[in-house]
Specification:
The protein is α/β, with parallel strands linked by helices. The chain contains 7 helices and 15 strands. The protein has one domain: Spore Coat Polysaccharide Biosynthesis Protein SpsA, Chain A (Alpha-Beta Complex), CATH 3.90.550. The strands form 5 sheets. A 7-stranded mixed sheet has the order 7-4-1-8-13-10-14, with helices on both faces. The chain has a two-stranded antiparallel ribbon with strand order 2-3. The protein has a two-stranded antiparallel sheet with strand order 5-6.
């Protein structure tokens, strides 16, 4: 099984302000989206489609500067790029459903450019996930889809109060009881066929979970997720400390 990948990188990123787009936040020496593409290719995923929307021109310009696209005037053209470390030529596709499209609509427009099974990735998330182990978990489960999850801490202090509003316990940023969705969602052909504009996370995945057709692959390794400016500072600190040496471009 050799999966393709759809990368969602067309969101507005309202919490980021002037730091947008999230996909172009530097993580080490390269933009997040370039690191993500490199990680997928190093794990054997060579058929990749970017689902664009907001900030598409900036993302296309970044891809061109990193050798993934060729620019001629105001137009961009896909070009083959050989990675010696990988030993193969990846295929990079571009899909732009417009700024008003939802994430699910972007996936529906882009899915015809790649073949299932397909891994849906978020353009604001990096993780040193083993794609081979994700595939193996999916195959052993016989599920229609497999979502990558991880244990996470709450960003808030949790307070337990009595009926008289007396605090009986206080825990600062405790581990959450349930794992969180990291993306890296492997969709088989049956799951892809059921994708609708109503949404991936709000419609398809809950339906598959109800039917017990959704498996989970728990990731216990490194993770970088950019959701607000504080995450950018944290990523910079981790890079400076050498905590992100697994990145494909160091």
């Amino acid at each position: 099984m050799t999966p393709s990948a759809l990368i969602l990188c067309g969101g507005e990123g309202r919490r980021m302000g002037a730091l947008n787009p999230k996909a172009l936040i530097p993580v080490g020496p390269r933009a997040l989206i370039i690191q993500l593409i490199g990680h997928l290719i190093n794990n054997g995923v060579v058929d990749i489609c970017l689902c664009l929307g907001h900030y598409s021109d900036a993302i296309l310009d970044c891809l061109a500067k990193n050798g993934w696209l060729r620019q001629k005037g105001t137009n961009y053209y896909r070009q083959q790029r050989h990675l010696g470390a990988v030993g193969r030529s990846p295929r990079l596709h571009i899909s732009n459903a417009g700024v008003n499209a939802t994430a699910a609509q972007r996936l529906l427009v882009a899915r015809k450019l790649v073949q299932p099974p397909t891994i849906v990735c978020y353009g604001d998330t990096l993780a040193d996930i083993s794609i081979k182990k994700l595939i193996l978990r999916h195959q052993n489960s016989s599920a229609d889809a497999t979502v990558t999850v991880a244990r996470s801490r709450s960003p808030y202090g949790h307070v337990t109060i009595s009926d008289r509003n007396i605090v009986t316990a206080f825990r600062e940023k405790p581990m959450l009881g349930s794992p969180v969705n990291l993306g890296f969602i492997l969709l088989g052909s049956d799951a892809l066929d059921r994708l609708t504009p109503e949404g991936l996370e709000t419609s398809l995945l809950p339906q598959l979970a109800t039917e017990r057709r959704l498996a989970a692959y728990e990731h216990k390794g490194s993770l970088v997720r950019i959701t607000d400016p504080a995450d950018v500072v944290h990523a910079e600190q981790r890079w400076s400390s050498g905590d992100l040496s697994w990145l494909p471009f160091c």
